[in-house]
Amino acid sequence: MIELMNVTKTFTTGKKTVEALKDVSLRIKKGEIYGVIGFSGAGKSTLIRCTNLLERPTEGEVLIDGVDLTKLKKGQLRKERSKIGMIFQHFNLLSTATVYENVARPLKLSKVPKHEINERVEKYLKIVGLEEKQHVYPAQLSGGQKQRVAIARALAQEPEVLLSDEATSALDPNTTSSILELLLRVNKELGITIFLITHELDVIQRICDRVGVMHQGELVEEGSVIDVFTKPQHPQTKDFVFDDANFKVPDSIKKGLSATGRIISLTFIGSSSSEPFLAAITKKYEVVPSILAGGIDQLKANSVGKLLIHLQGDTAEVEKAISYLEEREITVEEVAS
Ligand SMILES: Nc1ncnc2c1ncn2[C@@H]1O[C@H](COP(=O)(O)OP(=O)(O)OP(=O)(O)O)[C@@H](O)[C@H]1O
């Protein structure tokens, strides 16, 4: 459906050159929700803007349904672009136009017949739950409502793909949840493929099927959300997955615990969370585990358990216990002392 092949983007300002994307390739399947996560400056916005050619790649191909957008003339590009809707962090609504007008205007520009414009505006405002707000102006809406208008505007073009550029980053947690629910519904009920970028792990966890991790212009890791969460490979991915305030051991405590054993984090998929593996290692080996923190993250289709433990015992026994855990598909990560 969406294929980026060896995409490179270089910005040159004066004498300064920034390689925002370095040979990025990825493939997004029809009907899936694919998220790219990365810290600020990683190249996420450039990547998503290259997908609809808001930004033209310096090199590489951008294929939508097999058609390479970089090779198209203006008129053909406009036509292909109508398959791609987009929403933004700051909504990008026209402040001088009503909600109705905001949704209708792009349709007028695309020369959609008047009666159809009416039908579509009503249909999509209803889907986003704002049919009552047709005649108000954006300034009279909350952030979440503004994003709903932006979603209705994108959907009214009846696209196959929705690009989301940090759509929930300016919203509070409750509003974020309701917008994520709406995106899930749009994906499921309207069959629209979603490609989103975010710096929030939570967004990936809740709605994405697959995830890519960007770091300094490169796609350093990708896979199903469950795999990337339970077996992160790249240091950058580990930073995201293990960067949970509740799982941080204060330095003052860490020093004392490190002197008497090892501090390790365990990550496991839902079904293995019911196995009493801590009891098992205590029975099998000369080790004493103490729980420092624990929790369960709900992903879109799975749950992932996390435990932070202090493992006491002599080196060989601790190693054996760790091997036992790893054989059970539990990801064991040592917390630096
Ligand atoms: N129009 C531009 N001109 C020059 N440099 C740019 C331009 N757009 C982006 N960059 C640079 O490209 C790099 C990647 O930026 P990009 O905005 O894609 O990252 P990001 O991961 O989306 O970060 P953020 O979340 O902070 O927007 C940065 O070093 C940025 O300064």
From TrEMBL:
Entry annotated with the keyword Translocase: yes
Family classification: Belongs to the ABC transporter superfamily.
GO molecular function, one term: ATP binding
GO CC aspect terms: plasma membrane
A matching Pfam family: NIL
Domain ABC transporter stretches: 2-241
Keyword Membrane listed: yes
Domain of life: Bacteria
PROSITE patterns the record matches: ABC_TRANSPORTER_1 (PS00211), ABC_TRANSPORTER_2 (PS50893)
Alphabetic keyword roster: Amino-acid transport, ATP-binding, Cell membrane, Membrane, Nucleotide-binding, Translocase, Transport
GO biological-process terms attached to the record: amino acid transport
Protein name in the entry: D-methionine transport system ATP-binding protein
